[in-house]
Design goal:
With about 350 residues, the protein is an alpha/beta fold. It is built from 15 helices and twelve strands. A hairpin with a 4-residue loop joins strand 8 and strand 9. This is Redox-regulated ATPase YchF.
Length: about 350
């Protein structure tokens, strides 16, 4: 599962990508290509479990990111970037919200809402053009041979076309399982979940007014939004220890690290939750699809655990932290034993019992 980072020129996409992945981005001067990278999921629960168990090994879950070419006019006209966007699962749109006279803006001024609308319009136009071509092809083919599947697809595409013409992204359109299968392979960009990341200045880190302004838009178009100062985050990344990073955040008045918010939103958009396995040997964070039963989560750890699943011992993270240890948790009768029908919840700590 991949998150694609998109945005207009000079928004801070590259800086954010470097902070997330630790990858240095080199300007090659050649054709613009997607740049892949992998980021650790920042999760304070994992850190607290490591502190509690002091394991020999600690393994965070990770997310794949792809830095996509900037959406400048020349790139948009060429069109390759839209193929790149279609290859990712979720979109992270970095929007400039910081003022800096030394950094140009393609539109001549900083206006985050205008830029969000401009990028959304380009994605929507791509989908409209794709649907027009596909509808024409289907109508031509159906004049020669009547095909039930193609008739269903044509009706669906026309409904989608009307939805886009009413200025709505396709992720708002509810589809049946059958309809989803009909168009699953198509490069429809506005079906993807969208996260807006407003890159703010250092002096704006505790200002929530921008998020207040976009609240209605996000609710109407099913988007998530957050603010981050890529400049501040890059400074934090240079600090040597976790203690220094915490002190820096405290001095800035930042309660929750922006990268933790971002990776959390990415997981939500990808339809994934975290669960943990713990012990003196290893504390490990795992990802599983939201709504998965316990055997499926066991299969994420190892296929043998899913095949031979008997039961799962489940500890709730908040209860473990509140009581201080597994021993106290057991005394309080808070260690639950669950069967195959149990749905794993974000933050669960699992111990899988199985028989090979």
């Amino acid at each position: 599962m991949k998150v694609g980072i998109i945005g207009l020129p000079q928004t801070g996409k590259k800086t954010l990508f470097q902070v997330l992945t630790g990858n240095e981005v080199q300007e090659t001067g050649g054709p613009l290509k997607p740049i892949p990278g992998t980021a650790n999921i920042v999760d304070q629960r994992f850190d607290r479990l490591v502190t509690m168990y002091q394991p020999k090994k600690e393994t965070r879950a990770r997310i794949d990111f792809v830095l996509l070419p900037k959406l400048e006019q020349e790139v948009i006209v060429k069109g390759d970037v839209f193929r790149d966007i279609s290859d990712v699962d979720t979109l992270c749109h970095v929007v400039r919200a910081f003022e800096d006279d030394s950094i140009y803006h393609a539109a001549g001024s900083v206006d985050p809402l205008r830029d969000v609308a401009a990028v959304n319009a380009e994605l929507q136009l791509h989908d409209q053009l794709f649907l027009e071509k596909r509808i024409d092809r289907l109508e031509t083919g159906l004049k020669k041979v009547k095909d039930e599947r193609q008739l269903k697809e044509l009706a669906l595409l026309k409904r989608m076309q009307e939805h886009l013409e009413n200025d709505h992204p396709l992720r708002l359109l509810e589809l049946s399982e059958e309809e989803d299968l009909l168009i699953r392979s198509y490069p429809l960009l506005t079906r993807k979940e969208m996260i807006l990341v407003f890159n703010i200045g250092e002096d704006q880190v505790n200002d929530t007014s921008l998020l207040d302004r976009v609240q209605d838009l996000c609710a109407a178009e099913k988007m998530e939004a957050m603010v981050v100062s890529a400049g501040v985050e890059s400074e934090i990344a240079l600090l040597d220890s976790e203690e220094e990073r915490r002190e820096f955040l405290q001095d800035m008045g930042i309660e929750e690290p922006a990268l933790e918010v971002l990776t959390g939103l990415c997981l939500k958009a990808l339809g994934r939750i975290s669960f943990f396995t713990v012990g003196k040997d290893e504390v490990h964070q795992w990802l599983v699809r939201t709504g998965s039963p316990a055997p499926v989560a066991a299969g994420v750890i190892h296929s043998d655990l899913q095949k031979g699943f008997i039961r799962a011992e489940v500890i709730k993270y908040d209860e473990l932290i509140a009581l201080g240890s597994e021993a106290e948790l057991k005394k309080a009768g808070k260690l639950a034993v669950q069967g195959k029908d149990y749905t794993v919840v974000d933050g669960d700590i699992l111990n899988i019992r199985f028989n090979v």
